[in-house]
Write a structure and sequence with these properties.
By secondary structure, the protein is mainly beta. It contains 6 helices and 27 strands. It starts with a helix and ends with a helix. This is Lipoprotein.
Length: 416
C-alpha cells in the first residue's frame, strides 16, 4: 500500500471511530480531538439526531411522583398525548395489582375501583407514537391516611324503602370545622320537588329534611361529593357516592297518653286503633314527633343502660326477649310488645319506664297480637306522635326527630 492510500485508509477509520465516540458521548467535554468537532457535527446536532429516534408520545401520571394525601377516588390517572397507551400497571406497596382500564381511544387510563387509604401505589405506563416508538413513565404516591381523612356514616341505606318521616342523617367520624365546604359537597333532592334543607346539630352531625314529611311514593337522592374536601385543617373527605331511597305509604301513628290509645293512619285515614300503656307518672314518655329508626323482632332491655338502677346498681328491669321492639330515640324510648304485663293495663293504665307498650306474646311468634300487627305494618321512617304526656317534647337530635324543630329554626342551622 502506498503512503497516500495508507493515509486515506487511516482517515476513513478515524472518521468511523469518531462517529462512534460522538454517538456514545454524554457531554460536551474535551474529546481529545476525536469528538463531534472532528466529525464535523456539533453536540447539538448529535442530540437532535438522537431525539429523532425517541418516541413523541408524552405520558402524564397523576398524582405527581412522591405525592402525599392523594384521593382514593379521583386522583390516580394516566394520560398521553402524541401517542396511545399500550400498557399500564398499578400495584400497591405490597405488590397487589390494581385493576384498571385503558380508554377506547387509548388516550387515558384509570383504576376500576376506589383505592385504599394510607397506601403506597406505583404506576408504570407504556405508550407508542405513530412511528411505533415506545415511551415509558413511572410514578409512586401515597393515598390519604385515616388520620387525615373523614367519612360520613349515613342513613337510610341505598335502595331502601322508608317512611315519610325518615330524614337523611349523616354522622361524621371527625369533627368538621369547615361546615360550609362539607355541606357544599352534599346534596339531597326529591322527585316530589320539595325543598330540602340541611341542619347541623353539632360538629359531627348533619341532617336533611323538607319542611313537611316526604311525599308518599317519591324518590330521594343523596349525593356525596366529598372526595378531597377539606373538612378540617389537614383532614380531607374520601367519599364519592350517590344513594337513592324510596318513600313508602304515608303512615303516622298517634299515641294519646291521656286516653291510652294509639291511632294508626295511612294517607290520613284511620286503619287501626290499639290500646297502649305508656310511661308511668314517675317515668313519663316524651311528647313529640318521633321516627322509627330501628326494628328488632326481639331484643334485650336493661334499665341500667338508660339510668334505671336499684340500690345495688343493677337495672330496675332486665328483660332479654322483648318482642317487636322499634326504637324512637337514642336515649332508649321504644314502642314495643309487652307480654309480662297484665292484659288489663293496655288502654287503662300507664305503667312503663317511658316506652310505649302494646299487648304481645312471649317469643314474638303470635301474629294476632297487637304488638305483632304494629311491627309487621311499620317500616323504618314511620312517624309515631306522642301527645298529652306530662313530659317535655323530645329534643330534635335525640334520635331522628328533627321534626320537633320549626322550619325557620331548622333552616337557620344550614350553612349552604
Amino acid at each position: 500500500m502506498t503512503d497516500g492510500k495508507r493515509r486515506k485508509g487511516l482517515a476513513a477509520a478515524a472518521a468511523v471511530l469518531g462517529g462512534v465516540l460522538v454517538l456514545t458521548a454524554c457531554n460536551d467535554g474535551d474529546t481529545g480531538g476525536t469528538g463531534a468537532s472532528q466529525s464535523g457535527q456539533s453536540q447539538a446536532q448529535v442530540d437532535e439526531a438522537a431525539a429523532q429516534k425517541t418516541s413523541k408520545a408524552q405520558i402524564t401520571i397523576a398524582p405527581k411522583n412522591g405525592a402525599q394525601n392523594a384521593s382514593i377516588n379521583n386522583d390516580a390517572k394516566v394520560t398521553v398525548s402524541s401517542g396511545k397507551l399500550t400498557e399500564v400497571t398499578m400495584t400497591s406497596g405490597e405488590g397487589k395489582a390494581v385493576q384498571g382500564e385503558i380508554s377506547a381511544d387509548g388516550l387515558s387510563w384509570k383504576p376500576s375501583t376506589a383505592l385504599q387509604r394510607a397506601t403506597v401505589y406505583k404506576i408504570a405506563a407504556t405508550a407508542k407514537d405513530a412511528a411505533g416508538l415506545e415511551a415509558h413513565e413511572n410514578s409512586s404516591f401515597t393515598t390519604v391516611s385515616a388520620a387525615n381523612s373523614f367519612i360520613g356514616n349515613f342513613t337510610p341505606e341505598d335502595g331502601s324503602t322508608v317512611g315519610v318521616g325518615m330524614p337523611v342523617s349523616i354522622n361524621f367520624n371527625k369533627s368538621i370545622s369547615d361546615k360550609k365546604a362539607v355541606q357544599g359537597g352534599i346534596s339531597v333532592s326529591s322527585s316530589s320537588g320539595q325543598e330540602v334543607v340541611g341542619h347541623w346539630f353539632n360538629q359531627t352531625r348533619l341532617d336533611f329534611r323538607p319542611e313537611n314529611y316526604w311525599a308518599e311514593g317519591s324518590t330521594v337522592t343523596l349525593k356525596l361529593d366529598l372526595d378531597g374536601v377539606e373538612g378540617a385543617p389537614g383532614v380531607f373527605g374520601v367519599q364519592q357516592k350517590t344513594v337513592t331511597f324510596k318513600i313508602g305509604r304515608n303512615q303516622v301513628s298517634t299515641v294519646d297518653v291521656a286516653t291510652k290509645m294509639m291511632t294508626v293512619t295511612q294517607d290520613g285515614k284511620t286503619v287501626k286503633s290499639i290500646p297502649i300503656s305508656a310511661g308511668s307518672p314517675e317515668n313519663t314518655t316524651y311528647n313529640g314527633q318521633m321516627v322509627i329508626s330501628e326494628k328488632f323482632k326481639e331484643t334485650r332491655m336493661n334499665g341500667a343502660t338508660v339510668g334505671f338502677t336499684d340500690s345495688d346498681g343493677k337495672g330496675e328491669y332486665d328483660i332479654k326477649d322483648v318482642p317487636h321492639a322499634m326504637r324512637l330515640s337514642t336515649s332508649g324510648t321504644f314502642i314495643h310488645g309487652n307480654y309480662w304485663g297484665s292484659r288489663s293495663i293496655f288502654g287503662s293504665v300507664n305503667t312503663s319506664h317511658g316506652c310505649v307498650g302494646l299487648a304481645d306474646a312471649k317469643g314474638a311468634g303470635d301474629p294476632n297480637q297487637q304488638g305483632a300487627w304494629f311491627f309487621d305494618n311499620s317500616i323504618v321512617g314511620d312517624v309515631v306522635i306522642v301527645k298529652n304526656s306530662k313530659d317535655k317534647t323530645i329534643a330534635p337530635d335525640n334520635g331522628l326527630n328533627g321534626w320537633n324543630m320549626d322550619w325557620a329554626t331548622w333552616k337557620a342551622g344550614s350553612v349552604a
